[in-house]
Structures are given as structure tokens and as C-alpha cells.
Amino acid sequence: MSTAPTRRLSPEEYLAQERLAEFRSEYLRGEVFAMAGTSYEHGLIKDNLAREAGYQLKSGPCRVVTSDLRVKVDLSGLYTYPDIVIVCDEPEFEDAAFDTLLNPRAIVEVLSDSTEKYDRGVKFGHYRQLASLQEYVLVAQDRFLVERYVRQADSSWLLTVFDQLSQAFAFASISAQVPLAEIYRGVKIAGNAPWKTS
Question: Is 5 inside any structural domain?
């Protein structure tokens, strides 16, 4: 028994389909991949960090956008939806729909069991090909942990770990810092009650 080959979509076909879709999908080299839903904790962490950073950046050139904005990695052809995108230069878009960003300054992904390996590995490999990207931030949702990778002059990436609730996470290329206690406000970590500040 043979199976019919799956027809690959062009980027234009993917975008036309995606703009009408009820659920978001990633795209790479003709294939479309449905994105998993997120947990309550995932949403809280993303919203807490985006809100606090966005408030600090409101008077400057940088803007914080959450996971509804699609990003394209031109060199690899990946279309994806990061949890948080920060753009500081004049936004560059793929086309006149203005919904596919090409030049993020920073990207944040909130890790989950189903995406952690991908976010740390293959996806980071794609993101590193974005010439505009200066930092990549990974936020755990099962423990107090924020990892910041910053692009160096030699194109290597320097890792800084923030893993104490008393610490403040600071972006390196953007003037914003957010206490871990705020990032994890209301989030239940296994073995701990939901974290809240007074």
C-alpha cells in the first residue's frame, strides 16, 4: 500500500491560509505545523513579563508585542509566533499585510514540556539567523528560571542565568528589567503556592 505524498505549500499559500485560520501554525519549507495550546501558567508568565517590560519601554523606541505577531526568519524560511517579540528599529514587514515581522531585537519564549527541546535547539538555530536579533530569552514555567542569551561581537551567544526569586531579570540590549517575583506573579510552581508580591 502506498500513501499519496502530501502537497507542499508555497510561502504565499501558507500566508493566505494562515490569515484565515482559526488556529495558528508554523511553516517551514512547504510544511505547516499546528501550534499547541498554552497552559494558564504559560499565559500568566508571558503576560506578566510583556506588561512589565512594555510599561518601562512605553516612552522609547522599543515596542513589546505578544504571540499574535508572526516572525519570519528570512534565511531559513521559518514562519513562527514567538511568545514575546521586542522591536526597536523601524519595523520591517514581509508584505503590505504588516503581520509578518522581519527584524525583532529580542525574542522571549516561555518553555513547556512539549516545546522546551525545540525552543532550546532547532528553533534557537533558526532565530540565530536573524541579523537584527540581539538576545533570546527562555523562561521556565516549572521553576524560577530565566535564561538570557546575548549575541556577542564574534557571533557567539553569552548565557546569563537568573534563578533566584529575589533577582531582577534585565534585558541586555533594551532598557528594561523585571523582578522574577513579577514574572512569576500568580504562577503555581510545583511544591510552592502561587507567587504573589505585596
Answer: no
Does 169 reside within a domain?
yes
pLDDT tens for residues 20-79? 998 899 999 999 998 877 889 999 999 999 999 999 999 999 999 987 899 999 999 999
CATH code of residue 143: 3.90.1570.10
Domain with 150, as residue range(s), is 38-183
Nearest CA among 182, 176, 151, 198 for reference residue 44: 182
Backbone angles phi, psi at 14, to 5 degrees: -60, -50
Give a yes or no: residue 33 inside a domain.
no
Complete DSSP assignment for 35-48: PPP--HHHHHHHHH
**Residue among 29, 15, 84 at smallest CA distance from 52:** 84
